[in-house]
Amino acid sequence: MKFGHFDDAKREYVIDTPRTPYPWINYLGTQGFFSLISNTAGGYSFYKDARLRRITRYRYNNVPIDMGGRYFYINDNGTIWNPGWSPVKTELDSYECRHGMGYTVITGKKNGLKAEVTFFVPQDYDGEVQQVVLTNESGSDKTFKFWSFAEWCLWDAQDDCTNFQRNFSTGRVEIKGSTIYHKTEYRDRRNHFAFYTVNDTIDGYDTDRDTFIGLYNGFNNPQQVLDGKCGNSLADGWSPIASHYKEITLKAGESKTLVFILGYVEMPVDKKFEADGKTINKEKALAMMEKYNTPEKFAAGMAELRAYWDKLLGILNVNTPEDKVNRMVNIWNQYQCMVTFNLSRSASYFESGIGRGMGFRDSNQDILGFVHQIPDRARERLIDIASTQLPDGGCYHQYQPLTKKGNADIGGDFSDDPLWMILSVSAYIKETGDWSILDAKVPYDNDESKAKSMLDHLTVSFYHIVNNLGPHGLPLAMRADWNDCINLSCFSDTPGESFQTYTNPKFKAEGGYSKVAESVFVAALFTYVGPNFVGILNHLGMKDEAAKAQAEIDKMKKAMMDSAWDGNWFMRAYDAYGKKMGSHECEEGQIFIEPQGFAIMSDIDKDATKKTLAAIDERLNTKHGLVLNNPAFSKYYVEYGEISTYPGGYKENAGIFTHNNAWIICAAAYAGEGNQAFKYYSEIAPAFTEETSDIHKTEPYVYGQMIGGKDAGSDIGQTGKNFGQGKNSWLTGTAAWNMVAISQYILGIQPDFDGLKVDPSIPSSWDGFTATRLFRGAKYNITIKNPSHVCKGVKSMIVDGAAVEGCVVPYVEGKKEVNVEITLG
Ligand code: BGC
Ligand code: NOJ
Fold this sequence. Notes:
By secondary structure, the protein is an alpha+beta fold. Helices cover 28% and strands 25% of the residues. The protein binds beta-D-glucopyranose and 1-deoxynojirimycin (NOJ).
């Protein structure tokens, strides 16, 4: 069942009921000011940091769901409604929500009055602009009452939802004309304020929540709206809000347009106030209001936003026989990659914005799907991340976006972290050809005096693995590897201990983690990532260094075949007792997805590749994607940690973790199994799950982290209960990795150190496809022909009319357009 449809020409998802199976959201903003907006206008805004600079308030896990947002209320002679249905939830005569690239349009109609609201955050602008177009379609004159509503957050979202003894007494506002200013703590310690304005006169306002809503009412029945008036209240402590009030008369057929702005302003300390020393100096705020205070200026801002996305989405464009693939690659997957790049795992409808900072492994992987869009921003991010690395190659697991400093509370010792940086820096060089990044001087531990070249950072990353091997020559698992829930040194039996950071006294003397527990996943990742490092060294002419690194990779491959090959797949780990994990010998959790894909792509062993792909298909695949492990754990294994705390079928315990599905898609494509790769791709790609949105629940235009696996419900004797149900949408490495899987492995358009490689691995039924790719300043027009209906194999490549050996289009400086024609066979 669907709840809307894709409008590809406009790059929008059109939702036609407010009762989606879960709130379906969009993100506004790409630089400093961000908003989350659901299809019923729920959500909130923040500046740069969802925890420390929260502008409007939101309550997670609320009843009913998704309460709090930017709301417009209409009282049309006693009929009270919102254009987005919520929170009043009066049945509308018609409803539509269009989520587009950085904007959302919500339209509601009731009793002949139409309200169309467009929300967006303009480029280079710290505010959300909202245009409301009210049209009287009733055939006779209409007079009605209209309110806006936003609830201020007292800046630090964590403090705001916990420290009530103080916060109920600090809230402050100022009102001038049609603008409500939120200035809590501005007099004392803050140099920022927010405002909510409208480009028209108003008939009143409210800024005190209890006056507007009423202490015992809800968002669904604010007292002033029920009474058809406003209180002109001035907040003094308690909960400051911003609500404009206006009486509007529209003749039959007449329209009225109002433009609202929710803005954020930072002021230099010496310019904070007017001469009286307490009134806000509004110079900057007024200039912001001036920028979008007419429908014409609003339209210009929207046009600029569209042009921005035209440009970004013009970099890679494909035309395959499958509409759903085109829609994912050309629009939504790329869009989601921008969002994950910007927000890491901070603020979504599943991440509260007060939890995590930027993850070392997460942000490095996010770059893989984003680097082609704005390479300069990727470069800046790479330097920020590398600056938090420690001189021995270890890494802080997270850093704070506002301070850019490594987060000491969480610390390091996650065994996979350093490898992702080799991969992301390589991806940046492959995309741009900018080798100079390797010479950039980058601090260790944010200490400039310890700065060394980026190449040095990659070197210590590589050797951090080599220098931390266990008894089988496989990398030590440490606190966890990519799977945060395999905690082989935790042995936690006390509630509240963090599986990721708790150090069991057992391992204190050994430095915090077992020197026996080894990760086969990190071994496989090492053999996949390592050749990039070797490639870099070779390019720099450092042949001896390259040979030395290659020898380590070869050694690791051997260790994997000697000690981690289980006969039909690769094992997952050795636990702290030295026992096998992820082996057919185990009672539960016999096979794990994570090491398999990277092992296949490292060409460890041809026969192993075949057997592994078969085992994956047999043991892990389902119609909704590949489960993480099988069989699911049905009890708590203290020696494994968090993974066995989840009921079977959810999250890391045999859930369909879409992130690592992509690694198998890549691997199957790499191995020439284009049909198998495409099968797995289409099981989880959002556009393909659209048809079953009632089961899938979360947005059909973006990936979520997890889909309930085949074992979901097994814990309560109802196996299959939530099989196929998506959770944790938007902020997941799935976005970047599936972008890589479809564009670089299946469609095979893969930036390489020496040029653009084109080596597709597609469904054999396809006749071919075409694509355009902007790459290092040239436009590549790519045509793939598949007359023999194979999956993979470049039989011939013609570049600008001349045959070229292999499948890498050699990079020629200065060329502006390159025509590539490939015949598979
Ligand atoms: C989740 C993981 C996540 C980790 C972050 C765990 O509870 O299951 O997916 O990576 O928390 O700390
Ligand atoms: C989500 C985390 O953000 C990511 O870092 C981790 O790899 C996966 N969960 C798997 O545990």
